[in-house]
From TrEMBL, chain A:
Recorded name of the encoding gene: NCS2
Region of interest (Disordered), residue spans: 433-454
Keyword vocabulary terms for this entry: Cytoplasm, tRNA processing
UniProt-annotated location(s): Cytoplasm
This protein's name: Cytoplasmic tRNA 2-thiolation protein 2
From TrEMBL, chain B:
EC category name: transferase
Residues forming coiled coils: none
Domain Cytoplasmic tRNA 2-thiolation protein 1 C-terminal: 284-311
Protein source organism: Neolentinus lepideus HHB14362 ss-1
Name this polypeptide is given: Cytoplasmic tRNA 2-thiolation protein 1
CDD domains in the cross-refs: CTU1-like (cd01713)
Length: 489, 372
């Protein structure tokens, strides 16, 4: 995009010279026989070679992550420690992913005979790699009144393939104790609430038990900015998928994030303060309530590996694959409020920038792939379950004065437990960063003098459970000299 | 009941801080603005008593407020710094000549010695003549590379230990985004550092690293500071322009986005594998300035200009063309040899603005080489 108002007739450098879409000829660069049908980054492919190339890219990305020790030789036997969960949203990426998984690992293979998958040394080309494959869909229509429920459309697409078990979920399940118990969660004694008007995020018992759907509405409408809603829904969806994967003894959770979506989510993550988790945005090992260390890798049933096998495939390539394979893309409903979200703004920006700078998307992914967290994680964020740097509040207080007191007293006492110390920067900011515009009605709790009153927001089930568990850990620590057997183990 | 300042709870608020969302009064705004800059300086241990510090002054809002705040904090907290104003005259008619008038006015108001160093004196080219030679495309590359060296050379002439610049939180966030989007790993690794110093460079720091551009404008407005507010007449760097407009959209949606991006930049670093790919720092064989290759970027750009191959320092093809066209001819203008610590710095009095000021005679502005 030029900032000049140059006249192309009189100024020769006012217009960029038009570049040819392909480098040499219109013939396919692979088979060199057929006329090309698609240009992928200046390389011409025919339809047959394009599909083969896409399959190769997909396998090259997925297979090194299947064995417990990642990045091992691909040609060796593929022996995952558990089952597979495919996250399906109905969008383009996950539709292509579903088809590629089915063609590559289900329809072309026999069911797995060996019960003990960890010791299997069977030829991976003949037998299914994962014993069970589930397709999980999280319906978010509950978050927005009037939004269409697409579970049946998604079910139809999933059931058109054999070998998949369909697992539908709803985003409000995050607040449903029945769902929590169904995925093996320890029951939470009473609902906990958090005061989002106080940056320390003071916790207290929630007074009014409501249905999961009402609780979700209270949670979303209490967020301090509209931008927090899409981020929150993304976090809730991710955790619902992870807990489901764990409860189904799945070692792998695959997402349909293509190269374009990955670049958008990386920039969006950076824009929301999540730079510490750049690595996790590309590939992640998740273990309930703890940071995954090297020793945990390869231990059965302990970790879920989140893989994005389409991370080297652009959106245009996915579109062509879906078109040529005649795949039905259910599509995603537009989330009201999504365009105001950081992710929506980033998406518009990156897609626009890609027109002038076609290598932007791959450059972002490649650059972020070279980055690593600066510090060792201080723990796991209680809300998003990703490694956290800690000291979030201290950093924020250091760079901005929020009180005139020279030695501010801690705003929480031992009697007032706070959520803030257990959150990562991104989650803390999502729960506290206010919009520049007027707050929405649910959060507008200012008294006449401008002082904001308490707003109690219920927390997701896994947060409540972790806080309860931490309370037990503190008690256990005090009693450790007297306990002979650890009941929790 | 009328709304009260979120900090003092006594006065009527007159502004909403973008960084915290708090509505505060003018007195509290001045207090938090100045104290936050002071906290940034002291926590990063930027200065030692007795340090000679040059404030990079362009006459724009950031450097004007920086000069005001540095002078005030130095007096208020007894930093014990010897402050100078250092300006670079890029030679842009109708832009820099006007903004330098503002710097000269600031010099009188704050009673600080001022040194002005021009591209013409140092490189034998003004930006006007560069644009005439290369067109508007890529001219920001010349300006950026030449300015960085010019600041270091001006600082060396003043014998200062440290340069402070008016880069604010918006600039830092914008740079983080831009470096990720164009894959500049080397710059990404250092762009969030508050202070950068190599063995062969003068220490540089950004006391406004956590200060929002909006708050700098508010401060200048409420303090009635004089600054020059026109954009450069040559097209702004297109890529930075994209990053800037994206950042503005993010900020409009969530004001904390600027500080969130800085936090992201601080939280990650270049991984071990990628560090190995980074080029080692060298010394330019021609001018003694830091370089990644045998010649520093400024010498390459200057040679390209002198030999009528302006793309030599911009594209690989241009560099190859320059190499293929034979050795550097005799009599070509080059940049004076760089010495970081001059033993006898310029006397403060002699560096005050003089009409038609010329560069210090100890370092000739333009020298002629006889060999390639």
């Amino acid at each position: 995009m030029s900032t000049n108002c140059g006249n192309p007739i009189t100024e020769t450098d006012a217009m960029m010279p038009r570049r040819c879409k392909f480098d040499r000829s219109k013939m396919c660069i692979k088979c060199k026989e057929n006329r090309g049908n698609i240009v992928v980054r200046h390389a011409v492919y025919c339809k047959v070679c394009f599909v083969l190339m896409l399959n190769q890219k997909f396998k090259r990305s997925l297979e090194p992550t299947i064995n417990p020790v990642p990045d091992g030789p691909r040609k060796k036997s593929l022996s995952p420690l558990g089952n597979l969960v495919i996250a399906f949203s109905g969008g383009l990426g996950s539709t292509v992913l579903l088809d590629l998984v089915h063609r590559g690992y289900i329809s072309s293979r026999k069911p797995r005979q060996d019960g003990d998958i960890s010791t299997s040394r069977k030829d991976p080309k003949n037998e299914m790699v994962w014993k069970e494959v589930r397709v999980c869909y999280v319906e978010v229509c509950g978050a927005f009144p009037g939004m269409r429920d697409r579970t049946d459309d998604v079910r139809r697409v999933v059931e058109s393939y054999d070998g998949f078990e369909f697992v539908p979920m709803r985003v409000e399940d995050a607040f449903d104790e029945r769902w929590w118990e169904s995925v093996g969660g320890r029951p939470v004694e009473g609902q906990l609430g958090v005061d989002v008007m106080n940056e320390d995020l003071i916790l207290s018992p929630s007074s009014n038990p409501t249905s999961p759907l009402s609780t979700l509405h209270i949670y979303l409408s209490s967020l301090p900015a509209p931008t927090a809603i899409p981020s929150t829904l993304q976090t809730l969806t991710r955790l619902l998928l992870l807990h489901t994967s764990r409860s189904t003894n799945s070692s792998h959770l695959v997402l349909g994030t293509c190269l374009t979506s990955l670049s958008i989510s990386l920039i969006s993550l950076v824009a929301q303060g999540g730079g510490f988790n750049i690595k996790e945005e590309v590939q992640e090992e998740w273990c309930l309530g703890k940071v995954v260390v090297k020793e945990d890798k390869g231990k059965e049933g302990r970790t879920v590996r989140i893989v994005r096998p389409l991370k080297d495939i652009g959106m245009k390539e996915c579109e062509m694959y879906a078109w040529w394979s005649d795949l039905e893309v259910v599509g995603q409903e537009t989330w009201p409020g999504a365009p105001q979200g950081i992710g929506g703004i980033t998406k518009d920006f990156i897609i626009g920038l890609e027109k002038d700078y076609p290598s932007t998307v791959s450059t972002i992914a490649r650059t972020c792939g070279k980055l690593a967290p600066k510090d060792v994680p201080a723990g796991i964020c209680i809300l998003c379950n990703r490694p956290s740097q800690g000291q979030v509040k201290a950093w924020k207080d250091r760079i901005s004065i929020r009180s005139l007191s020279s030695s501010p007293l801690p705003s929480t006492s031992p009697a007032q437990p706070s959520l803030a110390p257990y959150l990562c920067y991104m989650c803390h900011t999502t729960l506290t960063s206010k919009s520049s515009k007027k707050p929405n009605s649910a959060v507008s709790t200012e008294k006449g003098d401008g002082v904001e009153s308490k707003v109690e927001v219920p927390v997701p089930q896994w947060v409540g459970a972790r806080i309860t568990a931490m309370g037990r850990e503190v008690m256990k620590d005090e009693l450790k000299e007297f306990l002979l057997v650890d009941e929790d183990d | 009941m009328p709304r009260l300042c979120a900090l003092c709870s006594a006065q009527r608020p007159i502004l909403k801080r973008p960084k915290t969302g708090q509505q505060i009064c003018k007195t509290c705004f001045f207090h938090v603005f100045e104290t936050e800059v002071h906290n940034t300086i002291t926590e990063a241990k930027l200065f030692q008593p007795g340090d000679r510090v040059a404030i990079g002054a362009s006459g724009g809002k950031d450097s004007t407020v920086l000069a005001h705040v540095m002078k005030m904090l130095n007096d208020r907290y007894n930093y014990g710094l010897e402050l100078f104003l250092l300006s670079i005259d890029e030679g842009i008619t109708g832009y820099r000549d006007d903004s330098l008038e503002t710097v000269k006015q600031n010099q009188k108001e704050y009673d600080l010695p001022l040194k002005i160093l021009s591209y013409n004196e140092l490189y034998g080219w003004t930006m006007d003549s560069i644009v005439e030679a290369v067109g508007r495309k890529n001219n920001c590359t010349f300006c950026g590379v030449f300015r960085r060296q010019a600041l270091d050379r001006g600082a060396a002439m003043l014998g200062v230990d440290h340069i402070v610049t008016g880069h604010n939180a918006d600039d830092v966030a914008e740079t983080v985004l831009m470096n990720i989007m164009r894959g500049d790993i080397a710059r990404l690794g250092r762009c969030t550092a508050i202070c950068t110093q190599g063995e062969d460079t003068i220490k540089r720091s950004k006391p406004f690293k956590y200060t929002y551009e909006k708050e700098i404008v508010m401060y200048a407005y409420f303090k009635r500071l004089t600054y020059f507010s026109t954009e450069c007449i040559y097209s702004p760097d297109a890529y930075r322009g994209h990053a800037r407009s994206f950042l503005k959209l993010l900020e409009a949606a969530r004001p904390s986005a600027i500080i969130d991006i800085i936090h992201s930049g601080e939280a990650c670093e270049v991984g071990e594998e990628a560090t190995k790919e980074l080029k080692e720092r060298k010394i330019c064989k021609r001018c003694g300035y830091i370089a990644s290759n045998d010649l520093c970027k400024a010498c390459t750009l200057l040679e390209g200009l002198e030999r009528g191959m302006a793309n030599a320092g911009i594209t690989d093809r241009g560099r190859k063309q320059l190499e293929a066209s034979g050795p550097t001819p005799d009599g070509l203008r080059t940049i004076p040899f760089f010495q970081m610590n001059t033993d006898t710095p310029l006397d403060s009095a002699s560096s005050t603005p003089i009409p038609g000021q010329t560069v210090d005679a100890r370092i000739p502005a333009v020298v002629h080489v006889t060999a390639g």
